[in-house]
């Protein structure tokens, strides 16, 4: 168990810091952080909870779990506080699920770069299934079925599938029809669904239909979420999980609580105060969430346009703050520059185009493909003042600092393909 | 992997809450929390860091690691910031060590109730070795050597030993002579030492000699610590680890960082601000730490006296805030009441004496023994005002609320043994 790699997005952060320290002027599109300031009422609640220095309940305080139950119930998932576990981020919850769920796990390809390493740390066999053309975050249904059968023939025991709704890295949202298909397979094939819905409140257009598998097959779906993305609170570490309310679901919850009690004890007290406020979603918070989602959408669409105009194919982004272009149509042009696969593409973008992206193979994608993830949430300005301006603008793309950042991407991509 | 138990001390908290909700007036000595208010400057630093909502470095920010390096260096462990990892508590760090260290692990008997479950979660074989008569927190040297050889003959591969200095649950501190012996064995037998020093700043008498194994065998010792105990910040979740500075030590650090990046990402930003202040140990903080240690010592010694006066044997407490009495001398008296082992003793104390303690078998001890852990840090008063009074009193035992709590223990123990 040596030479374990650092999570690649976090490793990339360090590379960027080093290059910048050397004087390089590079644009960082490799990290999935919503680069926005903390909303003032959230800070006020952190302050109000500052004196909560004693150990809190492992599961989360009653007030927090009540608020989280309301959050899910308002989203067509009737939830009692007993079905909720809060934690320092959704990562530890996903890890605990890996430690207690039986069998192997199916992961879409590409997917968030933490799913596969977590399975490996838990000693769990993972198998990846390509995403459909329509959207990421779910395995292609036909490929999923074929893989399940092939795995079983090979003596494997696939029992869990992870979905990401909306998706990181593709910035897309699987349609209700696709979710129905996946749920039908999960039901027939006896799979537990772990539905990572941390980007749920970052759907760009509020009229986009969202179907959670827990609406379809509630007895076999665990939903995880958190405040890191929608409220730009990655550095505060607040995550939640929703378990099925039946006996088996609550037994699974107890298994996760057992791991929680031995591995992280409790969400920090001041953060529980924040969570109780945020998951209750008072009007001012809803307005802030809506403004954030609008901004994420506008900038993601603009970046998407740049890549498509340069000749890449790319699913139009509808959620989260990512685009995932495919430069396959430009393979001959890139090959002439020595760019022939995912690592050389990302390296070339860094060295020659001053753009940092996360290479597709680091997300489990085919290393020979010419794909990468670009996080578009780093373009809102380098100071809280500029970020607030971006959030409040009717047309953020017209702001000079946003326009400049987009122009830099445009120049970098032009350099890549010309 | 079903029916995993909740960490027993945290489970006990819930039992106490339920019994109290039913109107029972019980004294909770079962939970290792320092029931003291947060020191004001710590709260101020939390507030100052409140706007740090972005993801911080996995390892911890440079300022925090610099402060922690100074903390260890002042304790005769020369440390560079590169040797330090900060995390949301020392529990996740200990878990990560379990996930990356090879081989089996040796745990003293009794020991803190999280070591064995963490090893089990990591799929690691654990073997327990009794503590010597002199002090807990370390295995008896002769028994350790015999166990290592027996394990190897049985095809096992013991490679790590966990020490607790000072010890939870016995409230004692292994002498330098004992540490030298254990370190010699670790060297001869090629063991990595994980030295849990979270109670280091809760040594009651500052002149008590403290020897860390990392002073003796620095290349094979990882030290963990945190602010939960010494500064009563269990609910803030701030932990640290110190790795050896050589190549192998930094490789182990990298393995832990890999797990960290996939499981918890980073210590929350506001908490990093707190840690940078606390580990720098300015004079006002040192005075607060010293006052806390004095209080913990005075009350632990008073509780020790009560148990010894009742006829139990008990190692005199010198660190942390626990006593670990053995009622073996009173076995005939207790047997007449149906108390014949560790579970029936704890149950009888709850049902008949209104005292909640943590039964010894839950700490890995012999289930037939008549031993338990009593946390003495819950006796300082139920309000911050009373707790401050306890902290500032020249003689906290003379304060009415402390004296009343001690008298209740006295009455409960009298009921047990009469």
UniProtKB/TrEMBL annotation, chains A, B:
<dbReference type="GO" id="GO:0006520">
    <property type="term" value="P:amino acid metabolic process"/>
</dbReference>
<dbReference type="GO" id="GO:0030170">
    <property type="term" value="F:pyridoxal phosphate binding"/>
</dbReference>
<keyword id="KW-0808">Transferase</keyword>
<keyword id="KW-0663">Pyridoxal phosphate</keyword>
<comment type="similarity">
    <text>Belongs to the class-I pyridoxal-phosphate-dependent aminotransferase family.</text>
</comment>
<dbReference type="GO" id="GO:0008483">
    <property type="term" value="F:transaminase activity"/>
</dbReference>
<dbReference type="InterPro" id="IPR015422">
    <property type="entry name" value="PyrdxlP-dep_Trfase_small"/>
</dbReference>
<dbReference type="InterPro" id="IPR015424">
    <property type="entry name" value="PyrdxlP-dep_Trfase"/>
</dbReference>
<protein>
    <recommendedName>
        <fullName>Aminotransferase</fullName>
        <ecNumber>2.6.1.-</ecNumber>
    </recommendedName>
</protein>
<dbReference type="InterPro" id="IPR004839">
    <property type="entry name" value="Aminotransferase_I/II_large"/>
</dbReference>
<keyword id="KW-0032">Aminotransferase</keyword>
<dbReference type="InterPro" id="IPR050596">
    <property type="entry name" value="AspAT/PAT-like"/>
</dbReference>
<dbReference type="InterPro" id="IPR015421">
    <property type="entry name" value="PyrdxlP-dep_Trfase_major"/>
</dbReference>
<dbReference type="Pfam" id="PF00155">
    <property type="entry name" value="Aminotran_1_2"/>
</dbReference>
<dbReference type="InterPro" id="IPR004838">
    <property type="entry name" value="NHTrfase_class1_PyrdxlP-BS"/>
</dbReference>
<feature type="domain" description="Aminotransferase class I/classII large">
    <location>
        <begin position="46"/>
        <end position="363"/>
    </location>
</feature>
């Amino acid at each position: 168990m040596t030479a374990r790699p650092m999570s690649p997005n976090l490793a990339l952060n360090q590379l960027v810091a080093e290059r910048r320290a050397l004087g390089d002027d590079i644009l960082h599109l490799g990290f999935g952080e919503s680069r926005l300031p903390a909303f003032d009422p959230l800070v006020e609640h952190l302050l109000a909870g500052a004196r909560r220095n004693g150990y809190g309940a492992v599961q989360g305080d009653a007030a927090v779990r009540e608020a989280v139950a309301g959050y899910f119930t308002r989203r067509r998932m009737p939830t009692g506080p007993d079905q909720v576990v809060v934690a320092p981020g959704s990562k530890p919850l996903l890890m605990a699920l890996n430690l207690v769920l039986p069998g192997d796990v199916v992961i879409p390809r590409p997917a968030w770069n933490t799913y596969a390493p977590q399975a490996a740390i838990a000693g769990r066999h993972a198998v990846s299934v390509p995403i459909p053309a329509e959207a990421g975050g779910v395995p292609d249904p036909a490929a999923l079925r074929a893989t399940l059968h092939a795995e079983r023939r090979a003596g494997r025991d696939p029992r869990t599938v992870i979905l990401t709704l909306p998706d990181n890295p593709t910035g897309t949202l699987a349609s209700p029809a696709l979710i129905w298909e996946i749920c039908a397979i999960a039901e027939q094939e006896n799979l537990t669904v772990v539905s990572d819905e941390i980007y749920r409140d970052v759907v760009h257009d509020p009229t986009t239909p969202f179907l959670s598998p827990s609406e379809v097959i509630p007895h076999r779906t665990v939903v995880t979420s958190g405040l890191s993305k929608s409220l730009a609170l990655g550095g505060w570490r607040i995550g939640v999980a929703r378990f099925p309310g039946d006996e088996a679901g609550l037994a699974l919850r107890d298994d996760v609580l057992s791991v929680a009690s031995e591995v992280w004890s409790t969400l920090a007290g001041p953060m529980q105060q924040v969570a109780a406020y945020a998951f209750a979603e008072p009007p001012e918070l809803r307005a802030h969430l809506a403004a954030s989602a609008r901004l994420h959408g506008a900038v993601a669409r603009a970046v998407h346009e740049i890549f498509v105009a340069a000749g890449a194919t790319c699913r139009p982004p509808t959620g989260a703050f990512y685009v995932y272009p495919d430069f396959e149509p430009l393979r001959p042009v890139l090959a002439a520059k020595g760019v022939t696969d995912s690592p050389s593409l990302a390296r070339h973008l860094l060295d020659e185009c001053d753009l940092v992206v996360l290479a597709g193979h680091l997300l489990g994608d085919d290393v020979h493909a010419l794909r990468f993830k670009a996080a578009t949430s780093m373009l809102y300005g380098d100071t809280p003042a500029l970020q607030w301006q971006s959030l409040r603008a009717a047309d953020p793309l017209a702001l000079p600092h946003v326009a400049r950042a987009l122009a830099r991407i445009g120049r970098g991509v032009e350099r890549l393909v010309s």
